[in-house]
Amino acid sequence: MSEVTPQDVRWGGLETVLEPGSLSRARIRDLGSGLRFPLVDFEPELAPTFYDAVPFDFSRLSEWRPAPVLEATLARQPEGQRRLDAGCGAGRNVPCLLRGTEHVVVLDLSLQSLAHVASRFAVRPARGSVLRMPFADGSFDFVVCDGVAHHTPDPAGAIRQSARVTRPGGRLYVAVYRSGTVYQGLCTYLGGLLRAGRRLEHRRLSDVIDRLAFAGYRVATRLLKPGRSGHEAALRTIYEDYFQTPVASFHSEAWLTTTLERCGMEVEQLEPCGNVWSVIARRTTASGDRSARG
User: Fold this and answer.
1) Are residues 54 and 244 in contact, defined by beta-carbon separation less than 8 angstroms?
2) Pairing of strands 82-86, 27-29
3) Mean pLDDT over residues 27-49, rounded?
4) Whole-prediction pTM value?
């Protein structure tokens, strides 16, 4: 595999955010989706992920908006910022991140998710892990890590990396699952049973369990959130994320604030938002500070 150079990347000047040496194993992916900027794959050896099999897609769910605290904070930011969506998924935060700037990088481990986002928006797509981001210290003015850290084996590490690439004085938005919620119980116990059912060697029985479970979720959604009931494909992706995702962790307010403070972040706003904590934090230490390194 030949080495990828910054000249190959051509992200309109934003290739300068890449960490020195990060391109040594990277490759350019041609997904045939008419991307404005090349998709740089920093994990070329990685097998397809859970979200490649079940790409998350909110594009048909008009009621699924970015968290109010994120929208409000971005509205107050100066124009022309460099921004990163670390773990962009289907890109529900991307329209908000693009307001007032053209300089947005999206990072995800799922090629399918990245292709979906980059085909809809003029963003710089990179395939990589939030646990080892290929970006230099302090590269971005605003970083979003929304609903991502709790799906990794090292949530604190994901937050450390997000803080590391935030410039001093810049801001980081983090959302992680709250502990002690009804969803925690559903994900742990009901989700555990459903994930075990999908692993059954008897494929026909596994499929029956899965169909029944999804039918039950669809009925519950129709009763509790009727705005989603007509979006079958989108509803399926939400079911998969809520109950079939292989890794999910839940965290207290104290854990979250302590983790951010250890990364050189000052918490400015923290509030519960549904099943998650939504946090805006400002970077107070220099970008090379050891406390922010994973």
Assistant:
1) yes
2) unpaired
3) 88
4) 0.91
